[in-house]
Design goal:
Elements: E1 6-19, E2 24-39, E3 44-48, H1 55-62, E4 70-75, E5 78-79, H2 85-91, E6 95-98, H3 102-105, H4 112-122, H5 129-142, H6 159-171, E7 177-181, H7 189-206, E8 209-214, H8 217-221, E9 226-231, E10 234-240, H9 241-246, H10 251-258, E11 309-312, E12 315-317
Parallel strand pairs: 3-8, 3-9, 6-7, 7-8
Antiparallel strand pairs: 1-2, 1-4, 4-5, 9-10, 10-12, 11-12
Bound molecules: adenosine-5'-triphosphate and magnesium ion.
């Protein structure tokens, strides 16, 4: 067995909430509440769940863009969470992140060439002006843009093209892991498919590993090898994409799937409507976080927290009723 490229062990992130004139910590947001998973090189793990369930926080903790409260992140056998500043800087090239809104993350005053080339300068990846220029052209062409677009500014591009610029910028440092945080969520469905196809081509070409974050299951279905479903800071189910979509085990996953449009109108799924809203992550419900909305909840569900257990081979679920 080879080591997974990325291993996340019991990751926790609590954001303190301060209040009063003294600014004391009065409460905390349980953004990520004990998340564990492994991701093999060249694979894609889709991460889905409703807004606020901790997907972005998980992604950012992995890259140490924010400091986890506890838990460990291992990358290529090295403990990222224990790294000092210098070591982390070296590591930064291996892990990149692409955001939902490329417009907000692309400096409007910089040309596309300068945006894509910035990291080449920071990490001293090219020696001469010629090399620098050629590498930018190569990166733009890799993502389906052209050399003559390098002198343009981000506002001159469409949403899908801007996302391609964001991807080119991430690729500049030849990363191994790319966290795609809602990378296609803001795009029209047809453009979404183009960008997802591009990401798949790039994955095959450069053996990239993706942590692919999205709100909804239909977006990650095509690109993911495995899918993790999060609810209020925890993974409630993780399985191969095929198992998760055909035989979901967690009642929350079932509800999410039942809301997904099916291509074949003959194939009718019973729509499961969840009652109420997602509870506040400041005071998540005791026991199973989902029990307040679960159509099948029993008494024990409100008392004891279910841990992830293997339901079938490689298919893990955290539910008292399903294991
Ligand atoms: N810097 C912060 N300070 C305080 N609370 C935060 C901070 N960042 C995130 N949170 C809270 O942590 C929880 C998880 O947020 P996160 O952004 O990880 O969710 P998400 O699953 O990515 O949601 P979305 O689908 O809307 O992007 C939310 O309740 C959010 O309000
Ligand atoms: Mg998010």
């Amino acid at each position: 067995m080879t080591e997974p490229l990325l291993k996340v062990n019991d990751l926790v992130k609590h954001f303190p909430i301060t209040g009063g004139v003294l600014g004391r910590v009065v409460d905390k947001v349980h953004a990520v509440d004990g998340v564990s998973f492994a991701l093999d090189a060249g694979q894609t793990l889709g991460v889905v769940g409703e807004s606020g369930c901790g997907k972005s926080t998980t992604g950012r903790c992995i890259l140490r863009l924010i400091e986890p409260t506890s838990g460990e992140v291992w990358f290529e056998g090295k403990n990222v969470t224990a790294m000092g500043k210098n070591e982390l800087r070296g590591m930064a090239r291996d892990m990149q992140i692409i955001f939902q809104d490329p417009y907000a993350s692309l400096n409007p005053r910089m040309t596309v060439g300068a945006i894509v080339g910035e990291a080449l300068i920071i990490h001293k990846l090219t020696k001469t002006d010629r090399e620098y220029h050629d590498r930018i052209v190569e990166l733009l062409e890799t993502v389906g843009l052209s050399a003559n677009q390098m002198r343009r500014y981000p506002h001159e591009f469409s949403g899908g093209q801007r996302q391609r610029i964001g991807i080119a910028r991430a690729l500049a440092v030849s990363p191994k892991l790319v966290v795609c945080d809602e990378a296609v969520s803001a795009l029209d469905v047809s453009i979404q498919a183009q960008v997802i196809n591009l990401l798949e081509d790039l994955q095959a070409k450069f053996n990239l590993t993706y942590l692919f974050i999205a709100h909804d299951l239909s977006v990650v279905e095509h690109i993911s090898d495995r899918v993790a479903v999060m609810y209020l800071g925890r993974i409630v189910e993780i399985a191969s994409a095929r198992d998760l979509y055909t035989t979901p085990l967690h009642p929350y996953t079932e509800a999410l799937l039942s809301a997904m449009p099916v291509p074949d109108p003959q194939l009718k799924r019973k729509r499961i409507m969840l009652q109420g809203d997602v509870p506040s992550p400041i005071k998540p419900p005791p026991g199973c976080h989902f029990h307040t909305r679960c159509p099948m909840a029993r008494k024990e569900c409100g008392i004891e927290s279910p841990t992830l257990k293997q339901g079938s081979d490689g298919h893990w679920v955290a539910c008292h009723l399903r294991t």
